[in-house]
Specification:
Largest sheet: 6 strands, mixed
CATH architecture of the largest domain: 6 Propeller
Structural class: alpha+beta
Low-confidence stretches: 1-52, 606-627
Helix content: 10-25%
CATH topology of the largest domain: Neuraminidase
């Protein structure tokens, strides 16, 4: 493939727009690397990621024109930013002809702003002549897609949505309603090319082009478009690709059915489609993946498709530094095909930018990156422009850096890291998200890379342990015992935390991770059955099944052999493998009983049966078996158990309240009766070899405290790990509260003479043969005791080790197929897992 790399240009696509230019290139050559031909991937060389440049942020508070209600999107052309906004229009008053009551609202009008990236000054393009709602009709004008051109001009897709009512001449809105009369929708779509001052260069009415007499007519439903360096516009309407000149004249069209995808620009001359190819032919598996399919202007046909690296879903124009740029995980990368390397050029988090509030970003032609931020928590909404410009590293104040490793960064943690880095003068947190190394063939490639780095001695300071094999790392001795920090008297002490979770987290008296909140994964059965057994193990479950009607199931009908195996193991894996000692017990009688139990489930399930698995746990459903709830099936003897998760006190209401007085939380069947497990939210660990242990502990404590603030406005994603916050939430859910108006006074919206209570949840039940929905305003002490009973009896933590599960799944297949006995299978699993554990310790 020929690639002419010139200056960087910009691309705006839908709501988020990115472009890149002017970055220096890594000239390192791989002498063993051959020409990649029509692929941009060298399968023999792993990708590399480095944060190569330092960026300094300027923060500009924007003063929007009066009446701006919302911002749709931004894009850039040259060094100018464009933003489409909705501005408050005239007040519309309506009257109810029956009651005479009136109400009013303000309509909005579409406007286009320019934003000066040097000053933040926002100016409306008053010369812009937009299509209008037809006279006598009601509706709106919107712009949902726009893109900048190299010459500073702008292409816009403008849509008109209008309705014309056929009202009589003597229509009086005070005594009559327009809804009583026929209406006609009058919609239109326009492709507009405007100059930098807002004046019109071209305006193409797509309703005129989309007619039977125009063979090149495109629909108004455009999915994407792109502009090349010559000013040609490429447009997709899902069915075809159209190429237009600057005046809006259609040059030619292509059948787009062969390559479905969004239009993107690879370099100055090449625009094409991002197309994902998938085949289930195992012999052609190498052909799966993302491709760029160029549009050839000379042949007016598709060019030779080019395979792209993993995680490249939208591309931005290349230049003399990189073949192309792309966005992934909210960062901007440059890709060089010759060395098969990707460089992380803009790391928003490293620039102390919280992308949670980012509306869009663009790269200016002078290599600055501009991001528009919105703060919806203020009234009115406030806007800020963050402009990143590349500087010498010496200009950035040096701080001591703590590296935080993760597989996907929690959104809440992202915001708190930005705040920490902005306010801490001595330390900063540098995040390495190893999910960026995932490939189409290996989702866990990032974990493999992190493990390899740890073995080589490169250990992060802090771990966000979700999706990481933290027990494996602890066995290598690289994870600190957090008990030693709490014993030191600095930060949080042990009595700060919910003790049951702390006990479950400890391994041989050592505490390797701490969460900000927790949940409980458990299961329940009818008390009349569960109470007959001292231990809810596999034998008890098998015996209990004899008391149900013929054809009854253990869990929902959607469960299969592999479903049961995965669920039971992930909630009790520590019973069979101890990473601290390296001891494995997969050849034990308990594990063989578990395999036999899983083998009693069907090998696979139909789609119909599977639908039942997703029925609500607590709702009493209709008689149609396709929608029969777990609660109904259990009470009718069709099912023994149901699984449920308690993520907070409210979830108890939604999940089990309808049958709470009939059930016992048994957990999954286990030999020691510990079948429930804790799920951890935002769990963190600290390296035992970090140079800054006190700073790492201070950071972990600060995050936990912020996520456990006792505040009526704080929303807990799970039960708070703080005992004080947990108790406060418990008291709150047991207290009936009332709805208040803006003055803090109780209200009676339903007019029954009583103040309206705050509804905490609800459930459906059957009364006199009819479905009745009931609201719950507070939990009782009996309800709380049932929840606390589950928490107090839980002694393990949800543990999903993909490597071990893969070994077990591989070996158990023959047993599930009837080709091996259970003891032989268990022995093989014991041998393989034991070898794996010893190798990893």
């Amino acid at each position: 493939m020929k690639t002419k790399r010139i200056f960087a240009l910009l691309l705006a696509a839908l709501m988020i727009v990115g472009l890149f230019a002017g970055c220096s290139k890594d000239n390192t050559k791989d002498p063993g690397k051959t020409d990649p031909g029509n692929s941009l991937i060298d399968q023999t060389k792993p990708s590399q990621t480095t944060a190569k440049y330092a960026y300094k942020a300027d923060y500009l508070d924007l003063t929007m024109p009066d009446g701006v209600q919302y911002l749709n999107q931004i894009c850039a052309a040259g060094t100018t930013l464009y933003a489409s906004v909705g501005i408050q229009g005239e007040e519309i008053t309506n009257t109810d002809p029956t009651t005479g009551e009136t109400w009013s609202y303000y309509n909005t009008r579409l406007a286009m702003l320019t934003i000066d990236p040097d000053t933040g000054v926002c100016t409306e393009l008053t010369n812009l002549e937009l299509p209008e709602v037809p006279e006598g009709a009601e509706g709106s004008v919107d712009c949902y897609n726009m893109i900048g051109s190299d010459d500073g001009t702008l292409w816009m897709l403008v849509n008109v949505y209008a309705t014309q009512y056929e009202l009589p001449d003597d229509f009086d809105p005070n005594t009559d309603s327009k809804w009583n009369y026929p209406s006609t929708d009058i919609n239109g779509s326009y492709l507009m090319h405007v100059a930098a001052d807002g004046s019109t260069i071209a305006s193409l009415d797509l309703s005129d082009t989309n007619n039977e007499d125009n063979e090149d007519g495109m629909s108004g439903n455009l999915s994407s478009f792109a502009v090349d360096a010559a000013g040609n516009l490429y447009v997709s309407d899902y069915n075809n690709i159209y190429v237009l000149d600057a005046e809006g004249n259609v040059q030619f069209k292509l059948d787009g059915s062969q390559y479905n995808g969004s239009l993107n620009r690879l370099n100055a001359q090449q625009v094409g489609v991002m197309w994902y190819n998938y085949t289930d032919d195992v012999n052609a598996a190498d052909e799966n993946g993302q491709y760029f399919v160029p549009i050839d202007l000379e042949t007016k046909d598709w060019g030779e498709k080019v395979k792209l690296p993993s995680n490249v879903w939208s591309i931005f124009p290349g230049d003399d530094a990189y073949d192309f740029y792309y966005a992934y995980n909210n960062n901007i990368y440059g890709y060089a095909a010759k060395t098969d390397t990707k460089e992380k050029l803009v790391d928003w988090l490293a620039c102390d930018v919280d992308t949670n509030n980012m509306s869009g970003y663009a790269m200016l032609s002078d290599s600055r990156v501009a991001a528009l931020m919105q703060d919806w928590s203020t009234d009115p909404t406030t806007y800020q422009l963050i402009v990143l410009h590349r500087v010498d590293a010496s200009e950035i104040k040096e701080k001591k850096v703590l590296t935080l490793a993760c597989m996907y960064l929690d959104w809440n943690l992202r915001s708190m890291i930005v705040e920490y880095n902005k306010t801490n003068d001595e330390y900063r947190i540098n995040v390495v998200d190893y999910s960026e190394y995932a490939t189409d063939d290996d989702y866990n490639a990032g974990v493999t890379k992190l493990t390899t780095e740890i073995i080589s001695g490169s250990v992060p300071d802090i771990f966000l342990t979700s999706n990481l094999p933290i027990d494996k790392y602890a066995a290598k001795g690289v994870i600190a015992d957090l008990n030693t920090f709490m014993a030191g008297g600095n930060g949080l002490s042990r009595d700060y935390f919910v003790p049951q979770v702390m006990s479950a987290l400890e391994k041989d008296g050592k505490l390797y991770e701490l969460p900000t909140s927790f949940s409980v994964q458990t299961a329940y059965a009818l008390s009349s059955i569960a109470s007959q057994y001292d231990t809810w193990n596999v034998a008890a479950v098998q015996d209990a099944m004899t008391q149900l009607q013929e054809g009854a199931t253990v869990f929902s009908n959607g469960w299969t052999k592999n479903t049961a195996l995965s669920n039971c193991l992930s909630r009790n894996l520590s019973a069979f493998v101890d990473w601290t000692t390296g001891k494995c017990e997969f050849d034990s009688e308990a594990f063989q009983q578990l395999l036999a139990f899983c083998n009693s489930f069907p090998a696979e399930t139909s789609d119909g049966d599977g639908a039942i698995a997703y029925a609500s746990s607590a709702d009493i459903a209709v008689d149609d078996a396709m929608w029969d709830s777990d609660a109904n099936r259990i009470t009718n003897g069709k099912q023994l158990m149901s699984t449920t998760g308690m993520y907070n006190f409210d979830s108890y209401i939604w999940n089990v309240y309808a049958i709470r007085d009939k059930i016992t939380f048994t957990g999954y069947p286990t030999e020691d009766g510990s079948g429930s497990s804790f799920g951890l939210q935002m769990p963190m660990a600290i390296s035992s070899v970090t140079k800054y242990p006190d700073a790492a502990w201070d950071f972990v404590c600060s995050i936990i405290k912020k996520m456990n603030t006792i505040d009526e406005n704080n929303y807990y994603y799970g039960f708070p790990i703080s005992q004080a916050a947990f108790d406060a939430e418990m008291t709150d859910i047991m207290t009936e509260q009332y709805q208040l108006d803006e003055n803090g006074e109780q209200v009676d919206w339903d007019g029954d003479g009583e103040p309206d209570k705050v509804i905490r949840g609800g459930y459906e039940t059957m009364e006199n043969g009819e479905r009745v929905y009931k609201d719950v305003y507070a939990l009782t002490q009996e309800d709380i005791d049932q929840i606390l009973g589950v928490i107090n009896s839980t002694r393990s933590v949800y543990d999903y080790d993909q490597e071990i599960l893969d070994i077990i799944t591989d070996e158990v297949a023959a047993y599930f197929a009837g080709d091996k006995d259970v003891q032989t299978t268990a022995n093989m699993i014991q041998s393989r897992v034991n070898l794996y554990v010893q190798e990893q310790r």
